Fold this sequence. Notes:
This protein is of the alpha+beta class. It folds into two domains: 3-88, no CATH class; 91-155, no CATH class. 53% of the residues lie in helices and 17% in strands. It is built from five helices and six strands. A three-stranded antiparallel sheet has the order 1-2-3. Strands 4-5-6 form a three-stranded antiparallel sheet, with no helix packed on it. The radius of gyration is 25 Å and the shape is rod-shaped. The N and C termini lie far apart (93 Å). Zinc ion binds next to helix 4.
Amino acid sequence: MEPATIGTLISGIKGTIDITIAALRARDEAKANEMANAINDQLAKLYGALFDAQQNALASQERIQTLVNEASALKSELDEFMRKRIELEKYELTPVSEGPVLYRLKVSNASEKPAHYRCPSCVDAGKPGYLQPATKGLRMYLICPDCRFEYAAGFLPPPDYSKLIERMA
Ligand SMILES: [Zn+2]
């Protein structure tokens, strides 16, 4: 097989990975699974082509190594995206008190980590976006350390004056 054909296979895989990532961002599970299967088929063809190329005495060893590295890098990119996707399945989009919709750790995963929220725009951009609580006066906020966005999370409960009233009585 000619190196140009191997390059075409790699371009095809890269294109399919882009479609897969777009489908995952659009939460189109059926399309993402279809594309993941297509990637596996394309990788099998690529490995076959690379094997054929290695058998060809005229093929340049350096070129083959570059192509193997490219295939490996694409596989790593896909593995990393899949890892993030599996991690994100532990969360559900949920509105907090004043309206913003955030990723919240599902109750079924609460034994793994303490309850927390993640910033949807940073998560969609592939960043962690673990929101940190903060207060300004009586208002509570959740601040994203990645994009610095402040999500209004409502009001603190009023202070408990019952002990003071008991002492005054
Ligand atoms: Zn953010």
